Amino acid sequence: MNNKFLLRCLVLVMAGFLFATGLQAQSGTVKAEPKWVDGFPVVMIGNWDIKPTFRRRVGANPVWIDEIFKKESTEEQVKKYKDMGATMVMAFFYKGFGLNAEKEEIDATRRLVANCKKYGLKTGAYIGSTLPFETFFAEVPEAKEWVAPDYQGQPVTYGSQTFRKLVYFQHEGYKTYIKRVLKIAVEDIKVDLIHFDNSSVQAIAPVFYHPLAVQHFREFLTKKYTPEQLKQRLGFSDVRYVEPPTYSKSIGILHDPLSQEWTDFRCRQLADYYGEMAQYIRSLNPEVAVECNPHGLDGRNSMWNESVDFARILPHTNYFWTEGEQTGLADNGALLSKIRTFKMARTFDNRVFIKTNDSPLKMAEALAYNREGIGLIGGMEEMDGGNYHTPLPLTQQQKDYIRFFKDHFDYYSGTTNIADVAVLHTFNSMAYNNDRPYQSTFLFEQSLIQGKVPFDVIFDAQLKNIDRYKVLVLANQECLTNEQQELVRSFVRKGGGLVITEHTSLYNAWHQRKENFGLANLIKVKAPDWHDRRTLETILPIPEQRNAIGKGRVVYLPEVIPSVPKPTMVPMAGPYFKLAKNHQQLIDAVQWASGNDLSLQVEGPETVTMELLKQENKNRLLLHLVNYNYEKAPAENLKVSLKIPAGKKVQKLTLLSPDRKTIASNLDFKQEKGMIQFIIPEVKLYELAAIELK
Questions:
Q1: Phi and psi at residue 668, in whole multiples of 5°?
Q2: Nearest Cα to Cα of residue 372 among 354, 399, 355, 352
Q3: Residue stretches of the chain with pLDDT short of 70
Q4: Dihedral sign, CA of 295, 301, 307, 308?
Q5: How much is the pLDDT for 64?
Q6: Closest CA to 509 of 428, 567, 593, 416
Q7: So what's the pLDDT on residue 534?
């Protein structure tokens, strides 16, 4: 054995150890990343649903659909993609009908990938998670054991496409088969990326009524708790006869302890599945990127409904898809965006795949908030409209944005975000209460978005590294562990600012009510009287409280007051994003908690948002601005005041935008007391201010 082989074996052993202990998912351990990912501009074409096997079975196709598929893998078509500005093609590969049933299409994928390589395009291989059983059972009869049993008298399928059954993905037989599929994609076809689709569907709750899942749930409980802890948790220690609780898609507060544990179990199973698949892919070729499709922070309780805990899944991936969040202005003026999801992606060192070919605003949003990617600019996956003879039309504006992104990619690579504020999403708060934690947390974030305050979205593991922030926001994060409470206290003792709302820290990790706030020594407020579990907690009828605690500053706000209250058991989305009635109070609280020391102030309309980034190796600050009201009016004369890093001076200020043909260089600015002040004359849709330092 040579040294390289021994080194590779050691790497694989260590990766397996990290996976087994959960360190990759829980402690922020740096994950493997192919060398090409960092600094690669993603401009994507996708065509996974053009596969004849799928199109014929799903129906509603034009008679010329087969001819279109034949063209998709040709050199002529790939050249068109290249001419459009594409850098990546997400290829049809494996839909789940079976390797034999899809052999001709897999061969076509091989030709497509070869042609893409000829033109310098990266390729991803689509892998579905459903089981079209009519062909698959003929190929693998034992797969009947993988399928989720009927739930409430109905088969567990992919929506109305009843030929696509769902399986218990942790069945060893299923995982072994998927690894066969992965091996072909990685070693035979030699793709650059694996795209796992349907991540928000494959682990819906009914899947976990599979007998093996029930067995795994019982094992999970015995490994997580001692017999004494189980008795405290459930009232008994023998879990041999425990069955999964009844599932209801709409919930308010999740009181049942078994339902809480089942949620944690389901999230762990899905994350462990992707961890195992990612480890296997990287053992075959560490230069293959891993991506899945769990959607994003769209206001749903994804932990309860889909077993999707982003904090556990995303440490395994390099990219992920989101298709859920809307972008634009609602009828009531609420600003809708994917900003939270983009921020979450940065927290977990991911990049986001999104569809942008239907909206210039989505392209602008991607330029401002995504990392090194403008998204999906076209493809034959759109089978429900359009002229199939002339696919992939791009408007001139879209072409301008794609060209701008590629021509000025130097401004989009190697960036890190600047954030004064961290908004915490704890698993136990967000998984066990579908209502006030979502309303308060998302509305507080909405105020930071529209108030143009630099912030990050963080999760449980990141709480251990919050010293980089000036302010921590806990917006009705009810369930805090003793360890989390001590981390918050330590942050304040060191001089950090803290903003707490409503019932933060009033519950433990099991959503059990405490006699008083766990952080009562910081907020100096007594908890409301206890009611039985059927009654919502009282909002304290007191004014805002501000306290200086040692070097730190603490603000308690009795309520984030919604302009449009979210009804119970519905997602926090759409019109409910209208700015809180006490929006300015939220911003003022953050400002005071920071010691009036925020990095940025932008005076402009609330429909203009910003993202502040830095490129340390290029000695550059970048301020991105997006006008969500662009269809009605440009934003004019925005006043900017921005903190400059210590010891630095501004050398040059440049404004760039795909909305105009010229670049505004050497703009006037004023620099004093560590700040730069300047005016941006106009933001039509998207503007980038580049500040060169020396």
A1: -70, 145
A2: 352
A3: 1-30, 380-392, 533-534
A4: positive
A5: 85
A6: 428
A7: 67
